[in-house]
Amino acid sequence: MGAAPAALKVAFVDKGGAGKSALAGTVCRQLARRGHRVLALDVDTMPGLAVSLGMPPEGARLPAGLAERVEGKGWQVVKGARPAQLVDRYAAWAADGVRVLELGKLPGQVEPSVTVAFRHVMERFRRPGWTLVADLAAGTRQAMFGWAHFARIIVVVADPSAKSALTTRRLLPVATHLVANKVGCASDLEAITAAVPLQLLGAIPYDEALAEAERRGLAPIDFAPDSPAMIATEELVSRLIREAS
Amino acid sequence: MKIAVIGKGGSGKTTVAGVLARCLARAGREVVALDCDANPNLGISLGVGLDMTEQLAGIRQSLEDGGVEHAPTPEELLSRFGAPAPDGVRLAVVTKIDQPNPG
Q: Which of these, A13, A18, A61, B58, is most buried using a 10 Å CB contact count?
């Protein structure tokens, strides 16, 4: 029995469709299998991390009414519950012992600003030994407005498209590391890394098994545990752990 | 006509919007393509290229920086901030978030 692994604080961001949720979900599960106590935070106003973790699409919903709009103060969590209480009471259980909170959406609320009420969970949840992995909304808005401030490692996930390259360049002021995803050939990897002066944490091959997992709404790690993309993600997780220590 | 294209990230909104704009222009319509995504990439799908797309300023940011006293008309905004795209499409970026917000 070794000591508990050092905690990580990681945020994932991308253009949208580059695969950050599938990657974040897989990283959470793999970290948990290595002994980490993982809190997965879906901050996306279009939540999807639960599926990538192997849960039903609505498996991590917070109860309706947990936040309310206070005159002059915007959205606030009712009765000012502390982050640790919110985690203990409302974080759902995913496979491998991963806990998950969906902070980007409340049932019955269409306003994306409701997310603000839960921002303190990320920033003030400091229980020793807990690893935090956040899946941010696609694009630049949340990242530029400080939603990843809690994280020591902010990973931008890029695929070989020109749109992804442009988004990745815009995210340079806030991102700390790069993951190349859906890499089909060596020139894909070159295209992704050429214009991005960030440390490359991993290159995940394009993998039809992952596309099939997405079609079926299953976690990649459950649907295709031995696929090349899952093996490459294992290497990425090893590098994440080294980076954090 | 006025068309909005929405959908999940990565499902192809921008590509569909770009193709729609170009096809309508080729059919003889006057087309304004408005990129309403704060991470605007529509220029790439319209065919203006990555560099030009990167250089386009957001109307909102330009107005805030420029200290405009009263709201210009939509026509003024388009002539000031619209960029030419192939087939005569006019492209404008509504808002662009590409710098960390200190607030």
A: A13
Q: pTM of the prediction?
A: 0.94
Neighbouring residues of A181: CB distance < 8 A, sequence distance ≥ 6: A14, A18, A19, A23, A157, A158, A159, A204
Q: Are A150 and A9 in contact (CB under 8 A)?
A: yes
**How far lies B94's CA from each of A102, A231, B25, B67, in Å?**
29, 41, 21, 17
Shortest Cα–Cα distance, A210 to chain B (Å):
15
Residues A178, A195 contacting (CB under 8 angstroms): no
Range of the domain at A163: 9-244
pLDDT tens readout for residues A162-214: 999 999 999 999 999 999 999 999 999 999 999 899 999 999 999 999 999 99
A4 belongs to a structural domain = no
- Residue B55 sits at the chain A interface (C-beta within 8 Å): no
Residue numbers in A near B50 (CB within 8 A): 162, 165-166
Residue A83 domain-assigned (yes or no): yes
Q: Among B11, B41, B97, whose Cβ lies nearest the Cβ of A163? A: B41
- DSSP β-ladder status, A153-158 and A9-14: parallel
